Amino acid sequence: MHEQHRQPDVTRLARHLQKHRHEWFMFLYDPLVPPINNHAERMIRPAVILRKLGSCNKTLVGAKVHSVLASLMVSCQQQGKRFLDLADQLFHALARIAIPLAALPGG
Question: Which neighbouring-strand residues pair with 106?
Answer without folding.
Answer: 81
